[in-house]
From TrEMBL:
Keyword Membrane (UniProt): yes
Stretches assigned to coiled coil: 68-115
Protein name (Swiss-Prot/TrEMBL): PPE domain-containing protein
Biological source species: Glycomyces paridis
Cross-referenced InterPro entries: PPE_sf (IPR038332)
Gene3D superfamilies, per the entry: ESAT-6-like (1.10.287.1060)
Swiss-Prot/TrEMBL keywords: Coiled coil, Membrane, Transmembrane, Transmembrane helix
Length: 320
């Protein structure tokens, strides 16, 4: 397999495991957040609001890298064809026009390959950073659940309220330290994301201009159709999570039911498309779930079949 195909396969293998980790953390952090106090609630927010799967990012990186490899291979093949043209087998104005047009086409292919390669590199950095962050959030969830067990055991076994209060204070102190690290890491991820978005935008504008200068005026919708739809769905899921927390975005000290919604939404049955009343078209647990009890994802799944082909993701990418 090529490098891109290897990355895509790696992401496909990673994705189910991280999906389990992400949903388990979102479910597991809720009880200690409700019981133990503000710092644990603030830590839970980092779990609720960071639901991006590193495996999916790695798959996207693999797709871009494969595109880069295919474009580069096509440019090299065209270059080899042009090299075979000489005065003995083809000459004159037609031959020169062919060489000029081939040079323009090679430049387009190589520019697209470079653009795709850089986008793949950005996604790999994000995927690796998020994978490390989720390992940290998993350890946070396990630690807070252990504190909760100790706290409830102290209350149930007759050790008494003073011991339970000490455990609760220790849990909040530990959670406060973890929140500090989480916010630092989120700042790094945010910086990487903003840099990637800026580079992606710059590359896209340059690509349109460059392709047009080489005689290939591309339609933005043809190139970015599915990406625009994905972006809108991503924004919808983000704000569904954000606004089901607390007013004004203050996520600490939320009511217990708000933590319950954030926990349940990750495993809530979600519509997958097709016959709305067919139970087979609803997935729950690790295979379902989504922000806002799955509403944005369900709407996207319902609308997707009615969108133009260029505005939706292919079921299975075909590398030709």
């Amino acid at each position: 397999m090529s490098t891109g195909e290897t990355l895509f396969a790696t992401g496909s293998e990673m994705s189910p495991y991280f999906n389990g980790v992400i949903k388990s953390c979102a479910t597991g952090i809720m009880p200690p957040a409700v019981v133990l106090g503000p710092a644990v609630q603030a830590l839970a927010t980092s779990v609720y609001m960071n639901q991006c799967n590193p495996g999916d990012l790695m798959k996207a990186a693999g797709a871009w890298m494969t595109l880069a490899e295919r474009n580069q291979a096509a440019a090299e093949a065209l270059e080899a064809e042009v090299a075979e043209v000489n005065d003995d087998n083809w000459s004159g104005d037609d031959a020169e026009a062919f060489k000029a047009k081939a040079a323009d086409f090679q430049a387009q292919l190589r520019e697209l390959a470079l653009n795709a390669c850089l986008l793949a590199a950005e996604l790999i950095v994000l995927a690796v950073t998020l994978a490390a962050y989720w390992a940290f959030l998993l350890s946070c969830t396990i630690a807070m659940d252990a504190y909760l067990v100790a706290y409830l055991s102290a209350l149930a076994t007759g050790v008494g309220a003073p011991a339970a209060a000490g455990i609760q204070a220790s849990a909040n102190a530990t959670a406060a330290t973890m929140v500090g690290y989480a916010k630092t890491t989120e700042g790094i991820i945010s910086t990487i994301s903003h840099t990637c978005a800026a580079l992606c935008g710059a590359f896209t504008v340059f690509t349109f201009a460059f392709q047009k200068s080489k005689g290939n005026p591309a339609s933005p919708l043809d190139i970015a159709g599915a990406g625009i739809v994905n972006m809108l769905e991503g924004l919808a899921t983000y704000y569904a999570r954000k606004f089901t927390m607390t007013p004004a975005g203050r996520h600490a000290n939320t009511a217990w039911w708000q933590h319950g919604v954030q926990s349940a939404t990750n495993v809530f049955p979600t519509y997958q498309g097709g016959d709305f009343f067919d139970p087979d078209n609803w997935n729950g647990g690790f295979d379902g779930g989504g922000a806002g009890l799955g509403l944005p994802d369900g709407i996207a799944n319902a609308v997707g079949p009615h969108l133009p082909e260029g505005a939706v993701n292919p079921e299975d990418p075909q590398w030709t």
